[in-house]
Amino acid sequence: MRRELFAEGLGTAFLLISVVGSGIMGETLADGNTAIALLANAIATGAMLYAIITTLGPVSGAHFNPAVTLAFTLRGDIASGLAARYVLAQILGAILGVWAAHLMFELPMLQLSTTARGGPAQWFSEVVATFGLLFVIFGGRARAPRSIPGLVALYIAGAYWFTASTSFANPAVTLARSLSDTFAGIAPAHAPMFILAQILATGLAALLLPRLFEAPA
């Protein structure tokens, strides 16, 4: 149990290190070119997802995302008590990852974001982004389990570009990014609607996707 929780916390920490750290580095080197900064952010995040899912998947299942944990709980694949521990480990890991990124770039460790990310278009984007992520995961489990690391990495790297919200698709990531006043940040006042959209998408995915993909063995 402790091994699984440590894997979830560590993996989520590395995920946030890649998201926030690459955002800081990309914005610094892009010299005001937001497109280049976003490209760097997307590539680094996709690469990290592939690495942590491949290495930690056999340990904990490599959720690194309360939405993924909730989806598997609704399917009956993980007990609710263990799911709650997973979520706590993910949130703690995400916050530690943000703080680690700040320290690496000699920024104040404790911050609150001032980046506005709100409105119906971005909320709907989070529904699409989260549903799509779960679509890739459930589809991969049913059709090509060994391809899941690559599928998730490619999907998130692409979703940075085809969603108005840049595809947070993760409540722990959303919460942690509200604690970073950098390229990847989101204002704390705007985070709850993102998280609500992600939870809504998770419910839709748990309801609809089992009808599309047969249950894995």
From TrEMBL:
Keywords: Membrane, Transmembrane, Transmembrane helix, Transport. It comes from the Bacteria. The keyword Transmembrane applies. It is a multi-pass membrane protein. GO terms for cellular component: membrane. The chain crosses the membrane at residues 36-61, 82-101, 121-139, 151-169, 189-209. It holds the Pfam family MIP. One of its GO terms (molecular function) is channel activity. Belongs to the MIP/aquaporin (TC 1.A.8) family. This is Glycerol uptake facilitator-like aquaporin.
